[in-house]
Amino acid sequence: MNTQFGKDLTTGSIPKHLIQFALPILIGNLVSTGYSVINTIWVGKLLGKDAVAAIAVSFPIFLAMVALCSGATLATSILVSNAYGAKDNAMIQRIANSSWAVAIVMILIVTLGGLLLSENILRMIGTPKDIMQLATGYLKISFLSFAGLYISYLISSLLRGIGDTFIPLIFIIISTVINAVLDPLLIMGVGSIPRLGLNGAAYASFISSGAATIMGFIYVKYKYKKEPINPTGLLFERKTIMEILKIGLPSFIQQMLVSMGYAFMTIFVIRFSADSIAAFGIASRIDSIVAMPAIAMMMAVSTLTAQNIGAGKSERIKGIFKWGIVINIPVIAAISLLCVTFPGTIMRIFVDDVDVIQTGIEYLRIVGVGYLFMIIFYVSNGVITGAGKAISIMVITFISLCVVRIPLAGLLSHTSMGIHGIWFAIVISFAVTTINSLWYYFSGRWKNGVSMNDEMSS
């Protein structure tokens, strides 16, 4: 069967495909991150520190929701890519319909559970009483936004699976603009629009994510009216859903491990000073920005890998691996050099406090060198993920964080190295991730078993 829609990534220039695929993802991530910073500034300036604190205590729960969305929909993207490479439209339709079935179940469980248990969850994580009411209202509306968040992720993953990352970028930009306009209007109230305070910020996110979802659904419905990524119904097929869970669940756990690792690092840093925790918070945000190009490349590598496995062209994966690293080198190396050479300038963008800046400088000079490992391990992880070996990525992450980073940071921070021991533990864990990921890639174990498409069709 000939696949007439989407973008075939199994022929043509590999570096061109990687850049064209990764660039819109990177721009979308930068837009979203940039706006999250602006949103925090709006809330801080208009509503004060209690509102900022209410968002802060809700943030780990929001991260868990994002991890659930991205984990489940990553599975959809990989499976669709694999079937698309195999030109198996019937399989793509089954995956699309099953993914929508999983989405409906997830949305109902998370939304209803969140609305009923918001206050209990916040109490469990130690939310102070003086911001409990603010945080509860904000979190409940955030749970209402989960449906839009999940579906927008799902639509983007279906489009990524057929090689399209440009249209999801358009939706992100439009959604961000809507959010940016609504935020101050709903927070402060203008004319007939009531003043909603912190809930206004949550409603702005709810409306913007809903708008992006509706636009995405309409686009897929009409652009791909007769194509298999357009859902024809809900399919509760055990075999297909198990394939989604086989990739989605480990991906979710892997992302939760990353969040847990950050929580432990925060606990270790808190022992030193308030300045240290402020510096670590800023430095962690810098980490996430630095990783964006590498993560975009990882997603490109995983999709190209999945399509080529589906097409029976696994010989192209060596080229995908090589070019992923080659393209990463100038980008990540330049960022690493900037962080090591001009750490003070970078820190001053975020804060004016001298002690916080000094701690941040020390962090960036140590961890900034470790950014170089991102050149490699995000690419090898992309190949492994594209081959459907999400459990292996989960194990690699577990070893890096739970076996190396957390114990080593706790140990070294109690030596004469002090807080620098935590920074070195982070770099060492980057190195361990790289070694394990490369070992798994070169061992060829990710090739074990037939392609996912063959597994599911058998």
UniProtKB/TrEMBL annotation:
One of its GO terms (cellular component) is plasma membrane. Keywords: Antiport, Cell membrane, Ion transport, Membrane, Transmembrane, Transmembrane helix, Transport. InterPro entries: MATE_fam, MATE_MdtK, MdtK-like. It comes from the Bacteria. It is a multi-pass membrane protein. The chain crosses the membrane at residues 21-42, 54-80, 100-118, 138-159, 166-188, 200-220, 289-311, 323-351, 363-384, 391-410, 422-442. It is found in: Cell membrane. One of its GO terms (molecular function) is xenobiotic transmembrane transporter activity. Multidrug efflux pump. This is Probable multidrug resistance protein NorM. It comes from Paenibacillus endophyticus.
